[in-house]
Specification:
Elements lengths: L6 H21 L2 H4 L10 H24 L11 H9 L4 H20 L3 H5 L1 E3 L5 E3 L3 H15 L11 H18 L3 E8 L4 E4 L2 E10 H8 L8 E2 L3 E2 L8
Parallel strand pairs: 3-5
Antiparallel strand pairs: 1-2, 3-4, 5-6, 6-7
Length: about 240
């Protein structure tokens, strides 16, 4: 089932996700940023550097949309990882300021776009060509999911149901296109959502809450998500 989402949805979810992410961040003491997050191998400093660099990269796409001048998200394929590693060494106060500043600049640049510019085609870091109207969704996905990844008491069940359905739709499409994992049929309890993932073998039925399925598909901790007979859901390859 495809979740319907609009540019307005993306902008609204970006605002809600930013409020959630930065609210959680403000409550975290600096020493917690040096510790682990829900993402293996990443400290809070890595995660914060990533969110800040992501906003800078999306500002590049907004510039591309506004001017027509091709401006990739990152200058080279390895630039994203290098920026995260370098950013993670910055002092906590500097990291916090960078994340806040870059988010504010992105909001301002998106607010400048007119209808023709929103329709201009830009290229994501994964090489997909999409209309600039996808930029708010790309940012919403970052701040919403990484608010959970800070591992500070916010779970997927704190995210809006409409966002979760759109996220599941987005991930199932990507996983089906890659075809490098198991075939699945997904049913959300307490919700009318049902999705399918193309892949290897006969489809495995997987059931869970909307929040649980979003966590499972994105490779996060997913309590209550099971296959038939209360068996564990199949392991999945990396999402992004």
């Amino acid at each position: 089932m495809a979740a319907s989402r609009s540019r307005a949805d993306g902008l609204r979810w970006t605002a809600q996700g930013s409020e959630l992410f930065f609210g959680v961040l403000r409550a975290l003491p600096d020493e917690r940023l040096a510790g682990p997050t829900a993402l293996d191998g990443w400290t809070g400093r890595h995660l914060l550097a990533h969110v800040a660099a992501n906003a800078d990269a999306l500002v590049n796409l907004a510039h591309w949309a506004r001017t027509g001048e091709e401006t990739p998200m990152y200058s080279s394929p390895g630039r994203r990882d290098a920026d995260i590693e370098a950013g993670a060494t910055r002092p906590a106060a500097e990291l916090r300021a960078w994340a806040t500043r870059s988010a504010d600049v992105l909001d301002a640049r998106l607010a400048e776009l007119d209808e023709s510019q929103w329709a201009r085609r830009v290229r994501t870091a994964q090489g997909r060509t999409v209309p600039a109207g996808e930029i708010p969704w790309m940012r919403a996905r970052e701040v919403m999911v990484h608010a959970v990844d800070l591992d500070a008491g916010v779970g997927f069940d704190a995210l809006p149901a409409g966002f979760l359905a759109a996220l599941i739709d987005d991930i199932t499409a990507k996983r089906s296109g890659a075809g490098d994992g198991p075939a699945l049929t997904l049913t959300a309890t307490g919700h009318d959502g049902a999705w399918a993932v193309s892949g290897a073998g006969d489809p495995t039925p997987v059931t869970g809450s909307l929040a649980g399925l979003a966590a499972y598909l994105s490779g996060r901790r997913s309590d209550g998500v099971t296959a038939a007979g209360d068996r564990p859901a199949p392991e999945l390859p990396r999402w992004l």
